[in-house]
Amino acid sequence: MTKLPAREQEEHAMNKIDLERRCAIITGGAQGIGFAIAERLLVSGASLSLWDANEELLKTAGDKLSTTGKVHICPLDVSDAVAVQRATDLTEQALGGIDILVANAGIAGPNAKCWEYPLDAWKQVIEVNLNGVFYCCRAVVPLMLKQGYGRIVNVASVAGKEGNPNASAYSASKAGVIALTKSLGKELAGTNIAVNCITPAAARTRLFEQMTEEHIAYMLSKIPRGRFVALEEIAAMVAWLVSEDNSYTTGATFDLSGGRATY
């Protein structure tokens, strides 16, 4: 896991974001980026529902986080639209509402040339990374419309802006998340529901286990800051995006690429 350099750790004070009485879903919340976001939102006062396909890791994460605040867990595969709707209903009952969705669940897929990419792997990456985000948004937006409030953050990637070689499925899926975010943001612009996405550079999580060392080195070489993004840096941006302070910006893409992205 990438940590902030020592000097930056000293300067990195956590701002208090007010999420009191807010109820949040975090997909892929059992580890990595999702877990870091969960920690940050709990500190800010939110109640959480963690969704993850790994039931064992999910239970461990729920047990650890529940010492800080209210945490509900829901094991499911976000690529299953029926399961997503069922989890949404269960979460609404457990938390008393849904104010926030952080659609973070994703997989890297194998590293291969586009013309050699395994068809089954392509379909799986698109199902989880893009269709899963769509299924989650589709399920929670009606609830947010009914209550007149909501904040959605979809986790894309700088690969969705630039396209990483030997990662065509991942890059395409994340580009789709960016476009989905912009479309949904415009559809909901007349409401008090903000829909935004983030495009982080790579963070050292278990997702790296699905990548070759060559691909990891390539990603690092493209980052002007010379390091991978720290999980707490991602969580800090998400905490603001899901707060009431973000009352105007919607349909936007927030860069966390360490200077890599130029737009």
Provide an overview of this structure.
The chain is of the alpha/beta class and 263 residues long. 44% of the residues lie in helices and 14% in strands. It is built from 9 helices and 7 strands. Strands 3-2-1-4-5-6-7 form a 7-stranded parallel sheet, sandwiched between helices. Residues 6-11 have low confidence and may be disordered.
Task: Write the topology of this structure.
Blueprint: H1 6-11, E1 23-27, H2 32-43, E2 47-52, H3 55-65, E3 71-75, H4 81-95, E4 100-103, H5 119-147, E5 150-155, H6 159-162, H7 168-187, E6 193-200, H8 213-221, H9 231-241, E7 253-256
Parallel strand pairs: 1-2, 1-4, 2-3, 4-5, 5-6, 6-7
Index terms:
alpha/beta; 14% strand; Rossmann fold; 263 residues; 7-stranded parallel β-sheet; globular
User: Overall pLDDT, averaged?
Assistant: 92
Helix-strand sequence: HEHEHEHEHEHHEHHE
CATH topology: Rossmann fold
Which architecture per CATH? 3-Layer(aba) Sandwich
List unreliable stretches of 5+ residues: 6-11
**Sequence of strands across the biggest β-sheet:** 3-2-1-4-5-6-7
Q: How many discrete domains?
A: 1
CATH class category: Alpha Beta
The span between the termini is: 27 Å
